[in-house]
Specification:
The protein is α/β, with parallel strands linked by helices. Helix content is 54%, strand content 12%. Helix 1 links the parallel strand 1 and strand 2. It is globular. The termini are far apart.
Length: 361
């Protein structure tokens, strides 16, 4: 549990690109919700004048600051620049916050309270008490599937690793090392949580209400989703290979010299490699049951592909022949599971299409 520390100086970082319709309202609500907190608007040279609006607010309020950036470089880089600015200026707590109204400033005190006994706090849509408002079913399923994907590959228990309403102690960000963050888009949120957990920091989730934006244009895109999925799979592969290598000595024997060495190696390699295939199968089942046929087929197929890539990585990693043999078998089974998932999802899609046609809609 974190030692008591000063958490008095709070900086809320709001990345912006074309948020002229929203920025004054969000900053005003934040200043009302936590009057002692400072706000940093990190604007990516918005063509709609968001930066100018932020400058006017800063001129009239010494708790509002503006970081003008040269252009649109992605959410992750905007937050990293904001984090560095906050660390350089001596803030104790740094908070990520949307500009579009999805995050509710009135819930910030919940995150700050939880941070007293944690190193990082995530506002979560998917823990009991959390919810989303005005989201289409497809968006909800995509978010839930993304978090299941993250749990499967990384083996973490966070329900909303992809969520972006987060609070950090300054020492947590220093411990993570901002230079170690790879993702630029929404995978950035997973990257931060994953590295915090790897370094032994306490990460808590508190329920929040997430509301779909009413004004302005969403920055979510297919490329952002793909980037997050690929990075998560890569981190998972590296993590599992590390587990294998730590358990296998240089001569192909288990690290712990216990009786029945070859049996232990076989069982360990089989368990770790098959776990990847099993996770892909579990993900397949949950997606197929989600009620969104097209996305189920697409993500199930992708799960199979990633499981195959994991198999190849393990086989090529230089672990002993037995480990490679069992990894290959696990990858094959995972591929069969995902192929079956794609087939079932396709059938589901056809059934749904028939129902829509039959209803005359």
């Amino acid at each position: 549990m974190p030692e008591p520390a000063t958490l008095d100086k709070v900086l809320v970082i709001i990345p912006t690109f074309n948020e002229a319709e929203n920025i004054e309202s969000i900053v005003g609500r934040l200043r009302t919700s936590v009057p002692s907190a400072h706000v940093l608007v990190a604007d990516d040279n918005s063509p709609d004048g968001t930066g100018d609006i932020a400058d006017r607010m800063a001129d009239g309020d010494d708790h509002v600051h503006v970081l003008h950036r040269h252009g649109k470089e992605g959410l992750g880089k905007a937050y990293l620049a904001g984090f560095q600015w906050g660390l350089d200026n001596g803030y104790d707590v740094l908070v990520e916050h949307d500009a579009d109204g999805s995050h509710q400033p009135e819930q910030l005190p919940l995150l700050l309270e939880a941070l007293k006994t944690a190193d990082m706090v995530k506002g979560s849509r998917w823990v009991p008490g959390g919810r989303v408002v005005n989201w289409p079913k497809s968006r909800e399923v995509l978010s839930r599937a993304g978090n299941l994907w993250t749990q499967a590959w990384l083996g973490i228990k966070l329900k909303d690793a992809t969520g972006g309403f987060n609070a950090f102690r300054a020492d947590t960000l220093r411990g993570i090392g901002l230079h170690n963050i790879e993702a630029a888009g929404y995978g950035f949120q997973v990257d931060l949580a994953w590295k915090a957990l790897q370094r032994g920091f306490v990460v808590k989730e508190v329920p929040i209400e997430f509301i779909e934006r009413e004004r302005g244009q969403s920055k979510m895109s297919r490329n952002i989703v793909i980037e997050a999925a690929l990075l998560t799979a890569r981190w998972g592969i590296a993590h599992r290979l590390g587990q294998l290598k730590s358990l296998v000595g240089g001569n192909g024997r288990p690290a712990g010299q216990i009786g029945g060495e070859q049996v232990d190696l076989k069982a360990t390699a089989s368990r770790l490699a098959k776990d990847a295939g099993a996770k892909a199968g579990e993900l397949k089942d949950k997606i197929v049951d989600s009620g969104v046929p097209a996305k189920a087929a697409e993500l199930a197929k992708d799960a199979g592909k990633k499981a195959g890539e994991l198999k190849d990585k393990i086989v090529d990693s230089g672990v002993p022949a037995k480990a490679a043999e069992f990894a290959k078998d696990a990858g094959k089974k995972a591929g069969e599971l995902a192929k079956d998932a794609t087939h079932k999802a396709g059938e589901f899609a056809n059934q749904a299409k028939s129902k829509v046609s039959g209803s005359g809609k």
